[in-house]
Design brief:
Layout (H helix, E strand, L loop, with lengths): L12 H36 L23 E2 L1 H4 L36 E6 L7 H15 L9 E3 L5 E3 L17 E6 L10 H18 L3 E4 H4 L8 H4 L2 H8 L2 E2 L10
Helix pairs in contact: 4-7
The chain binds zinc ion.
């Protein structure tokens, strides 16, 4: 299962910007009153020769960017197979002599991930869990990978599925996998439109990933690999809204890791 979020979060750049923005708004509304209050107290304290009382910190409203982990159906609950480390195109484990091997990221994932890459599955079975199983089967048996390529799936009925472990490099965007978290929306969105519930579930997932991993960018698969239409025109139309919701820039500009 994906690693639990650290129990203590350091203040991210996004948090910092959010808080300073909030403080600026609050300051504009309250500084006049605070100044008048200070003058009144100051006159009083000088008259009585008593020290100024310690100011009570202003209570800030609950920070809106505290996002709960969305409900995610774990691998064993949708019938995923275990990874196959003898897989033809992802054989063994990553190392200097095996750069295409199964790569487990070491350390804090916030230092690894920058971009969320959105996909559509194209294939769709009769339901969401069956589609996840079919994708994994296709990736392992036909593509020769050790596991399903994507880190998460988003079903048409709004169920979110755990895919490849989050601390393992995906195989979903050729040449740009390192540092890219893969999210697949189940369906063919060159032909049909994602359901509103599916878009909302994907939005919540990506909001959480952006905060959890301190991502900077969101993009569609075809922006990295121009030989594909993925994620399809009807899903591509909502990428801007998804990026905006998560506070991410749209595009491939966040890619900084080695190209593997
Ligand atoms: Zn794709």
């Amino acid at each position: 299962m994906p690693p639990s979020p650290p129990s203590v979060r350091r203040l991210s750049r996004r948090d910092f910007l959010g808080l300073t923005g909030m403080a600026a708004i609050g300051g504009a509304l309250t500084c006049v009153g605070a100044s008048l209050g200070y003058l009144a107290v100051d006159r009083l304290s000088r008259a009585r020769r008593t020290p100024l009382p310690t100011q009570t910190p202003v209570a800030l409203p609950a920070y809106s960017k505290q996002i709960d982990r969305p409900g995610i159906l774990e691998r064993q609950d949708w019938g995923a197979h275990a990874p196959d480390h003898d897989a033809e195109n992802e054989r063994g484990f990553y190392g200097p002599d095996n750069r295409e091997g199964w790569r487990v990221y070491e350390g804090d994932l916030r230092a690894v991930y920058r971009t969320v890459v959105v996909h559509h599955s194209v294939l769709y079975e009769t339901d969401d869990p069956g589609t996840m199983r079919a994708i994994q089967q296709q990736h392992m048996e036909l593509r020769g990978w050790a596991d399903i390529a994507y880190h998460f799936g988003v079903g048409q009925n709004a169920q979110v599925f755990a895919g490849r472990l989050l601390n393992v490099r995906g195989t979903h965007v050729e040449g740009f996998n390192t540092g890219s978290v893969g999210v697949v929306f189940l369906g063919d969105f060159s032909l049909s439109v994602p359901t509103p519930a599916q878009i909302e579930a994907g939005r919540r997932l990506i909001d959480w990933l952006a905060l959890r991993l301190e991502l900077t960018h969101l993009t569609g698969h075809s922006d990295f690999n121009s030989d594909t239409d993925c994620p399809g025109q009807h899903l591509r139309e909502v990428l801007s809204a998804l990026a905006q919701s998560a506070g991410l820039a749209l595009g491939t500009g966040g890619y900084v890791s080695e190209q593997t």
